[in-house]
Amino acid sequence: MTAGERTPLLEARGVVKSFGRVRALRGANFTVFPGEVVALVGDNGAGKSTLVKTLAGVHSPDEGQLLVDGEPVDFNSPVDARAHGIEVVYQDLALAAELPPAANLYLGRELMRRGLLGKLGFIDDKAMKRAGDRSFHDLGVRIQDTNAAVAAMSGGQRQGVAVARAVMWADRVVFMDEPTAALGVVQTRNVLDLILRVRERGIAVVLISHNMPEVLEVADRVEVLRLGRRVARFERGNVTMEEIVGAMTGAIEHKENHA
Amino acid sequence: MSAPAESIAAPDDDLDGAQQQPWWAKLVGGSSIWIGLILVGLIAAFAIVEPSSFVSIANARNISTDAAILLVLATGQTFVIITAGIDLSVGSVLVFAGVMSAKAMDWVGGDGTGTIVVGLISALFFGGVWGWVNGFLIAKANITPLIVTLGTFGMALGAALVITGGIDEREIPYDLIDTVGTGRLFGEVPWLVVIALVVAALFGVLLAKTRFGRFTYAVGSNAEAARRAGIGVDRHLIKVYMVAGTLAGLAGWLSLARFGTTTIGGHSTDNLQSITAVVIGGTSLFGGIGSILGTVFGVFIPAVLQNGFVITGVQPFWQQIAVGAVLIAAVYLDQLRRSRNR
Ligand SMILES: Nc1ncnc2c1ncn2[C@@H]1O[C@H](COP(=O)(O)OP(=O)(O)OP(=O)(O)O)[C@@H](O)[C@H]1O
Ligand SMILES: [Mg+2]
User: Fold this and answer.
1) Nearest chain B alpha carbon to A106
2) For residue range A62-108, what is the model confidence (pLDDT) as tens digits?
3) What is the rounded average pLDDT of the residues A197-215?
4) B287 at A interface, C-beta within 8 A
5) Which of A45, B85, B109, B140 is the most buried (most CB within 10 A)?
6) Domain range list for chain B
7) Across the interface, do B222 and A94 touch by the CB < 8 Å criterion?
8) How far apart are alpha carbons B305 and A77 in whole angstroms?
9) pLDDT in tens, B213-269
């Protein structure tokens, strides 16, 4: 299972992204292979979230190339990325807090009523709520009242809603930008199990996390971002926590090969 | 990094059952029911004090006729405020659309249905154009709604004054005044009221049951999240301001029908009145929350107060004081509700 032999499902090459004078990505590379769990790690401000948003079509890169299955692609909006089966749990969750969870699950992809009503733009809230309740149940997200607005929920429950949404729609890759940051012990366990279950379905997961034991537990590979560039890649089993942290902080220099 | 409470809570494996609420629980949970109760309470109070003159069909007709045109404006305003925006231009757009409608009917000439329909279409069109201008500047130029619509508030009124030379147009087809303006359905319900309620009902359904409505809430609740969910936020905002503008156009045409003149000077506070009604009705100025039913109550509370004070012999100036207090209370309740949720 060496990385070089397979065609990456999703790849970023030399991506540059600036916000005014802040250069968030300075020629970043990133690779996701089909059906793997890859951890994207790096210090605060390393550019992880910016890279995720670029690969999700939220930001368009100033320079560089995105590839899906080895073919160059342009993502002009999140809709383009979704069309390739890419879903994201954003660090800020990107939920409409005043709407109930089911409305968030289906935001922008509402189930319509059947027949004429559907053509007139009527949405099927009952069906969305039913499907939402089922997927929360399956994922072990406990929500007392699924009619209430997301604003009324705990941080962990909100994170559960965002994770459920991404997993529900993803065909090929799910990005999870610190999905366990607000979670208790039990919920963190749930999310890690969920990541493995998603992988069993053949869907790749990109896990962004500052929690190294968590990373070492679930990730098949680790890619390290530092100051907007990829500085190291590790395979599962060949790496210690000290090495990852060393690469993150720049204490250990690795040869990054720009394949 | 504290463990959320639900980790301790007993698992609830029941999928459907349990969570289903009876219909009235939803109503009581929403804020519009309280506003509705306040309205009922006001009506009851005036009815007890002055049963003979307050409780009559004629008086109900007066109240609702006065409220009808404002309800049309406030319906559009509700959509705008749910997107976390504001439309200060509605009164001026009403005037401008009324002027253009009157000019168009004058130009076609005659008194018949055709002329009246031309007038209606012009009013809707010119209202919609101002709405598009508002929406375009807000969505594409990223100027805050308060400033954009304050600008068009002045511009639309100024344009109406330029076109008319500041003199009200009084050549309104008599048939329009006689039917829409003063006519009644079944000889009882004024057409103005029927039209306003139908508009409120249609747009209430649009808001509550359709994708257009869902996008409206989503944009107001979290525009960035809506964008990432693939919603064309800019396009949707433009549409929402066009709804408000078009409804202001309709209100302009209704106003011609009611008063038989363009009433150029009479709409400088329509914007504040419509915002007051929407906010009293429980729609949140922060966006993402609101309903047309609430707005209907919010329109009628000031109208009932006005009428009730006149009938009970209280100086009607008290109405303004009472409405102001209700407005502040409504916003305070909204803030309480939000801080409890976060
Ligand atoms: N929308 C934006 N506008 C301006 N600057 C931004 C924006 N997004 C990110 N940045 C900047 O880009 C840099 C990288 O930020 P990014 O959020 O990608 O880091 P991160 O690796 O996700 O960090 P963290 O671990 O704290 O989440 C930071 O310096 C940040 O201030
Ligand atoms: Mg981040």
Assistant:
1) B229
2) 999 999 999 999 999 999 999 999 999 999 999 999 999 999 999 99
3) 93
4) yes
5) B85
6) 29-341
7) yes
8) 51
9) 999 999 999 999 999 999 999 999 999 999 999 999 999 999 999 998 899 989 999
Kindly state whether A88 is in contact with chain B, defined as any CB-CB distance less than 8 angstroms: yes
Any ligand 1 atom below 6 A from CB of A21: no
Decide: B127 and B245 in contact? Cβ < 8 Å.
yes
Cβ B19–A187 below 8 Å, yes or no? no
Query: pTM of the predicted model, to two decimals?
Result: 0.90
* CB of B90 closer than 8 Å to CB of B270: yes
Phi and psi of B110, rounded to 5°? 80, -175
Instruction: Give me the count of residues in chain A.
Output: 259
Cα–Cα distances (Å) from A212 to A47, A93, A224, B137, B333, in that order, read 18, 22, 12, 48, 45
Q: In the beta sheet, which residues pair with residue A173?
A: A86, A204
CATH 1.10.3470 assigned to domain B29-341? The reply is yes
ipTM of the prediction: 0.90
- The alpha carbon dihedral of B205, B208, B213, B217 has a sign of positive
CB of A209 within 6 A of ligand 1: the answer is no
d(CA B60, CA B78) in angstroms, rounded, equals 24
Mean pLDDT of B110-138: 94
What angle separates helix B32-49 from helix B317-341, to the nearest 10 degrees?
Answer: 150
